[in-house]
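FORM 7B: Structural annotation worksheet

SECTION A. Query
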Amino acid sequence: MTTIPGNATKIAEVHHSVCALDCPDCCGLLVNFDGVKASRLRGDPAHPITKGFLCGKVAQYLEREYSPDRLLYPQKRIGAKGEGRFARISWDEALDEIANNLSKVSREYGPESILPYSYGGTLGFLNGAGGDRRFFHRLGASRLDRTICASAGAAGLTATLGLRYATEPEQFAKSKLIIAWGANVMGTNVHLWPFILEARRNGAKFYCIDPVQNRTGKLADKHFAVYPGSDLALALGLMHVIFAEGLEDQEYLEQHTSGSQSLRRLASEYPPERTAALTGIPAEEIISLAREYATVRPAAIRVNYGVQRSERGGNAVRVIAMLPAVIGSWREAGGGLQLSTSHAFQLNRTALERPDLQLRSPLGREARLVNMSELGKALTTLDEPRVHAMVVYNSNPATVAPNQNLVRQGLAREDLFTVVLEQFQTDTADFADIVLPATTFLEHTDIYFAYGHYYLQMARPALPAPGEAKPNTEVLRMIAQRMGIEDDAVLATDDQMIRDLLDSDHPSIKGITLEQLEREHFVRLKVSADGKPFLPFSDGGFGTADGKCDLDVSSLDYVPPVESRLGDESLRADYPLELVSPKLDDTMNSTFGNRASVDAQTAVVHLHPADAAAREIVSGNQVRVFNGRGSCLLRAEVDAVSRPGVATAPSTRWNKRAADGRNINVLTSDRLTDIGGGAVFYSCLVQVEKCGD
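SECTION B. Predicted structure
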């Protein structure tokens, strides 16, 4: 406990918590609380990855916690859908309304006409993927295929490695060459940066491959401005040089991989000149990068999900993930590749989510699967049965979903009953029939995995919930009871769900208990002996059927995305600019879209001087960005953030804050990735025209 300066009568307790935002760092937090209000939020200095500091987003989180705009009470819509007019009601009234409508919809149209919609608003197992799955499985509701962020990359990584294991962040300090590929480390993975800095102090080189020269690219020793969606071609071009010059690790290839001959054949078709034409990277730079990667050891790749938000993104990740096997860098501490560590958290997800409850639902079988990246289609054209009720939590689809005009058309349906669990009155909440106030991660119990390190964490409430806000788990238990569902699994307590989740025999998890997590706050997975680096594939041990890294690309080739500079000619004639909408450093998708500073940064499109001059546009002009799906108004910034032919518009602005009520997702399509069924936010052709000074 610490005394609060200037007020000796109040003693601040220091409470532990965990950041639940969708970020690989999954930070441990400390909160000073005086019994009434929190006075300070900081990173836990004892946490091996957090190391006592926070990103700019979460450093300001207490402003969100105590914002006068927090939703505090249940509300019922009194205006038109999308208008955002609501009246306060009691929890009893809200629960009756929800229970009656969900029961009616299930009875009249079948339970699959109910659709849950959620994603990464919290990475907590309980409030993100526990009580909700049990509840909706028991109802027999449609299952949601949660593809909008990472599914293509996960599919690509799993196809190659069989397991989503990765080089641990601590090992990057030992690297001599680090490549950030589609990874804005400074903006979206800042706790990896100290390890990169340590490596650079020891002589390492740091390179960045990205269509946009973001903060990370500006700090790199070299930035390779690859064309959007051409990463697969670049990976094959690098392998061409490595194989042609005999720089591969033949011993590792023979012992621990399969299909290497097919990879050699395909790579042989991507000489530097052809790769340069496809990617925009000069041939001599491709040759130099390939030689350095193969000979400067150890070399690590930090590939992130920016790569897979393209039509060819899943296979791009698949082939990039082959590079460490080609040069044998999985053998070395400081080598290998990191996309996600999530697969190492071999918790008992089945016991947590209870898919067997579908058999006890009115449906009596496994429910249909609806791809969340095609929400607009699901709400407007999906039939047998049509979606007549939707429960939204941990997401803001009216802002973040692709093909936004179609999504909003669906949300505006008067015959769609919509419930939204939220902390703020988002664009999606404006379309709700009932809005319920949700707690923040500082206010409820949860257990957390990470996808950027190997520490399992747990947190109890660090602060009291304001008003009548409740955790998702409690809300769904209340709705279930109001609907007459007395199933013990659905009504299980948070602690019981944690125990179910921890009931795993996997060596990385076995023996970790709720009591240990509550006492220690974070526990390293048992992936390696104490003090020893985790080298997941140093001696093979891949999760594929034969235990080898799968390099078989006999059915693979690179085809430029339909919406790209080398794609559909008729589309390109009308919409000649490739639009990339990367994550903004100061927000998390739309989570902080209520902040004026975030809104200002997401109201901008960056144009290369050559593209701006051709359109008589200068910085500060209002411009219309448009294609066949829609248009939005943004402010032009003329700079060299991206190369000619590529426009950059940071995501994701709240629609209601825009003068025209639209953001860039009116431009993105609901076309799906090559594998994994993911969203193709970065395969998008547009035109830009000046429409004001």
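SECTION C. Observations
The chain has four domains: 2-65, 75-146+347-524, 152-339+535-550, 569-692. Confidence is low (pLDDT under 50) at residues 1-8.

SECTION D. Sign-off
Analyst initials: ____
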